[in-house]
Amino acid sequence: DPEFAPIEYFDRAGTYQGVAADMIRLLEQKLGISFTIIRAADWDEVMAQFKNQEIDALGAIVPTPNRRTFMRISEPLLKVPGAIMVRKNVDAQLTFPDLRELKVAVVSNYTAHDIMQKEYPEVELDVVKTTTAGLTKVSFGMVDAFVENLATATYYLQEAAISNVHVAGDTPFTYQWGIGIRQDWP
To answer: What is the pLDDT of residue 186?
Structure first.
C-alpha cells in the first residue's frame, strides 16, 4: 500500500518503508533472495494486481473471510487494535452496533471495509481512497465516524494536523497483519 504509514508506505524519495518493509527486508536477508517492490497508485490497484497475479505477495494484509477466498495469509506478524474515530464534540463511547444509525467512512478494500460490508450491511458506508480522506471527512462533519486501525489513524491525524477528531470506541476485531501469498503458490 503506497500510503499506509506506519505499516507500509513509500517515503518522499520513493523508498518502501514501514513495519512491513522491515519484515520484507529481514526475509530477504534470511532467505538470501530479493523481492521486487511494486508501486501502485492505491490499495484498490494493489488488490486488483494481486487478484490478476501481477503481484505475487503482499507485505502486510489482515485475513478476512473474503480475502481467504483468493489468497493465503501467513501467521500474524503484527497486531494493532482498531478504533472508531469521531469529532471531539461527540463524547459518547461507541460500539459497532451504535454505528447502525451513523454514516461511517472506511478506506476502500481495507479491513474495516471488507468486514463491515459483510457483517454489518445495515451501516451506511462512505468508501474513501485514503485514511487522510476518512479522517478529513470526520473532521469536517461530512461523516459521523471513521473506522481504521489505531496505528494508522493516529499517524495520519498527526501528519494532517487534525485536532478535532478522537477515538470513541474499539472495533470488535484486531488488525493482525501477515504476508499475503498467491493462492496457487502454497
So the answer is: 80
d(CA 35, CA 8): 15
**CA dist., res. 38 & res. 81, Å (int):** 28
**Of 6, 74, 10, which Cα lies nearest the Cα of 40?**
10
Closest among 173, 83, 90, 95 to 134, alpha carbons compared: 83
Q: Residue type for 14, please?
A: G
Tell me the pLDDT tens digit for each residue of 45-61.
Answer: 999 999 999 999 999 99
**Cα–Cα dist 76/63, whole Å:** 9
Burial call 16-29: b when 16+ CB within 10 Å, e when fewer: bbbbbbebbeeeee
Question: How many separate helices (H) and strands (E) can be counted in the chain?
Answer: 5, 10
Ranges under pLDDT 50 in the chain: none
